[in-house]
């Protein structure tokens, strides 16, 4: 009983997305691809930061033109933090972006789609252990339309979903806190499955 109460509490925190701070996003003027083929902010002017619960910026109510910190064109946004992985397994990732994007988890390049594009799709997967993994997402806009989303399919999932705020954090939580959060996420997954089963 106590464990359930605790899991619900942690789950509430995780869903709120602020248990250990949401992802930190940094905005830079301009964009570039370095000699290794990677989106790079070296030498770019840093314009500012904002807190981002999840990467979900494809907004047709704005005419598919995202303006982070009010910057319309010729910019780079990077997200730095940690992905809280609820269980060991193969995780699939999908991006839709305009323009280029790269996603690194730990030392793995999971999505590598850095070219100029009109809402292109990036796909990749990573074999991950339960726990916190460093996340590095780089995105840039050249001109006109812009936006970016990052989705995943955890093991067993059949549909793409935006990587939820509850598993994206800026700071590495204490190991005990990670364990509690993972219990909460597992409870949430069980509830979700039961709801689907009821339908
Ligand atoms: Ca824009
Ligand atoms: Ca564009």
Give an overview in words.
- It is globular, with a radius of gyration of 17 Å.
- The chain is α+β, with helices and mostly antiparallel strands and 199 residues long.
- The protein has helices at residues 2-16, 175-198; strands at residues 23-29, 45-52, 56-57, 75-85, 89-98, 101-105, 108-113, 120-128, 131-141, 147-153, 161-162, 168-169.
- The two termini are 27 Å apart.
- It contains two helices and twelve strands; from the N terminus they run H-E-E-E-E-E-E-E-E-E-E-E-E-H.
- The strands form two sheets. Strands 1, 2, 4, 6, 7, 9 and 12 form a seven-stranded antiparallel beta sheet that branches. Strands 3, 5, 8, 10 and 11 form a five-stranded antiparallel beta sheet that branches.
- Bound molecules: calcium ion (CA) (2 copies).
């Amino acid at each position: 009983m106590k464990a359930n109460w605790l899991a619900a509490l942690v789950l509430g925190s995780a869903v709120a997305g602020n248990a250990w701070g949401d992802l930190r996003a940094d905005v830079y003027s301009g964009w570039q691809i370095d000699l290794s083929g990677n989106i790079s902010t070296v030498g770019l002017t840093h314009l500012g930061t904002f807190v981002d619960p999840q990467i979900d910026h494809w907004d047709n109510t704005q005419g598919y033109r995202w303006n982070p910190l009010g910057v319309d064109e010729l910019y780079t946004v990077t997200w730095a933090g940690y992905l809280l992985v609820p269980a060991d397994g193969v995780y699939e990732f999908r991006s839709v972006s305009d323009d280029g994007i790269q996603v690194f988890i730990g030392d793995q390049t999971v999505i590598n789609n850095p070219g100029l594009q009109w809402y292109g799709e990036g796909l990749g997967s990573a074999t991950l252990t339960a726990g916190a993994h460093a996340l590095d997402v780089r995105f840039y806009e050249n001109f006109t339309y812009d936006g970016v989303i990052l989705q995943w399919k955890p093991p067993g999932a059949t549909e793409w979903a935006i990587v939820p705020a509850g598993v994206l954090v800026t700071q590495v939580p204490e190991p005990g806190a990670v364990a509690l959060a993972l219990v909460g996420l597992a409870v949430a997954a069980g509830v979700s499955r039961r709801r689907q089963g009821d339908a």
